[in-house]
Amino acid sequence: MTDTVLFTGTATAVGGRNGHSQTSDGSVSVDLGMPKNGVLDAGKTTPEHLFATGYAACFGSAVEAVAHQKKIDVTGAAVTVAVSLVKGDSGYSLAAKISLKAPALTAQETKEVLEAAHQMCPYSKATRGNIPVELSVG
């Protein structure tokens, strides 16, 4: 079977972490900044925020797909993704934490959906083996 491209998002950044990034269709246009002492200038965002946003949305769709397969209710489910820029002995890297809160499910059911979604989500597939990803029931 041949892979079929369903959608391509394209963005251009000028000025790196202290510049501006915008998608080719203008749907996203952001000023970027590097936090100083943990504080980010007003009106700016970071690549980690943008990655976390995309990951959370994609993971949320995977949660819904798993719920559909299992015929369970995930109404009101919320996925929170925290992406960290980490500096270590070998330089900079990323780490992620994913939390799933599913009010209609038990903690065990939520854990099962979380783990199954992690196997299905394209962002999880892309990061698997490349960055540490911690899963938790929220």
Q: Could you report the average pLDDT, rounded to the nearest whole number?
A: 96
Give me the secondary-structure category.
Answer: alpha/beta
What is the beta-strand fraction?
A: 25-35%
Number of strands: 7
Protein name: Organic hydroperoxide resistance protein OhrB
Organism: Starkeya nomas
GO biological process, one term: response to oxidative stress
InterPro entries: KH_dom-like_a/b, OHR, OsmC/Ohr_fam, OsmC/Ohrsf
What does this molecule look like?
InterPro entries: KH_dom-like_a/b (IPR015946), OHR (IPR019953), OsmC/Ohr_fam (IPR003718), OsmC/Ohrsf (IPR036102). Pfam families: OsmC (PF02566). The chain has 3 helices and 7 strands. The protein is of the alpha/beta class and 138 residues long. It folds into 2 domains: 34 residues, no CATH class; 92 residues, 2-Layer Sandwich (GMP Synthetase, Chain A, domain 3), CATH 3.30.300.20. The chain has a 4-stranded mixed beta sheet. A 3-stranded mixed beta sheet has the order 5-6-7. A hairpin with a 5-residue loop joins strand 2 and strand 3. Helix 1 crosses helix 2.
Short description:
The chain is an alpha/beta fold and 138 residues long. Helix content is 32%, strand content 30%.
Q: What is this structure's SSE topology?
A:
Elements: E1 11-14, E2 20-23, E3 29-32, E4 44-45, H1 47-70, E5 78-88, E6 91-101, H2 107-120, H3 122-127, E7 133-137
Parallel strand pairs: 3-4, 6-7
Antiparallel strand pairs: 1-2, 2-3, 5-6
